[in-house]
Target: Diaminopimelate epimerase
Amino acid sequence: MRIPFRKMHGLGNDFVVIDAREAPVPMTTRRAAALADRRTGIGCDQLIVLEPSDVADVRMRIFNNDGSEVEACGNASRAVGLLLGGTQSIETLGGLIRSEAGADGVSVDMGSPRFDWQEIPLSYAMDTLELPVGWEELENPVGVNVGNPHAVFFVPDADAVELERLGPIIENDPVFPERVNVNVASLVGPDHLKLRVWERGAGLTRACGTGACATAVAAMRRKLTGRKVRVDLPGGPLTIAWPEGGTIEMTGPAALSFEGSFEDADFPA
Ligand SMILES: N[C@@H](CCC[C@H](N)C(=O)O)C(=O)O
Model:
């Protein structure tokens, strides 16, 4: 039996999207990692499985390239919003979000950020506005959870950071019991940030939507920017707004690359 999939991306952060709303497609860590493998599978940063939901229009399950199932993915939320069109409520492990497809791309209400140390989560109590931790030149990040955990480091030049080397060390540090997504950001103009992300379970990606949300919110909390910012990632820009007392709105593009199918038995669950 062949299982159809779509290959999609948001600013080059790429996904294999499997629509399992009509017919179930069993997914496990082993199967997700095999499908996501760029040499022996289809290849993607995240594998997305769409399922029926009791509380929303659709349930979106998210698996990283290493097969780990996670709570949130900003770029995949826009991709799914584009695929389904109009306004959609999407159930994720990180909470309910809402997408709206429009002429300028897809906007997603990503919900409210959380800053309590237990909610990041961290291993012990500390001030999440300036975590008293450091790895070489990367020091005192902001801790924030936007459905998934992020550490945001503000540095003079995000391009100068050796993120391939430091990213995995920070991702797996015991201070982050559920691992962490590692963001390095620079302020490049008024309300304008440059960002690179080492993603938990996926490594360096061309863009990370939740990373852009976490970084924008961190910059706003540190009073580095106003409440609406442009975030430039290697794959292109996103706009993030977080009005006082409101939820995070992320706007940007998404695209379909191609469609295909794989043999069920070749990728055992
Ligand atoms: N690429 C994503 C984030 C995917 C999940 C992340 N790697 C995690 O483990 O939390 C995005 O666009 O937000």
Summary: The radius of gyration is 18 Å. The mean pLDDT is 98. The domain at 117-252 is CATH 3.10.310.10 (Diaminopimelate Epimerase; Chain A, domain 1). The first helix runs from residue 29 to 36.
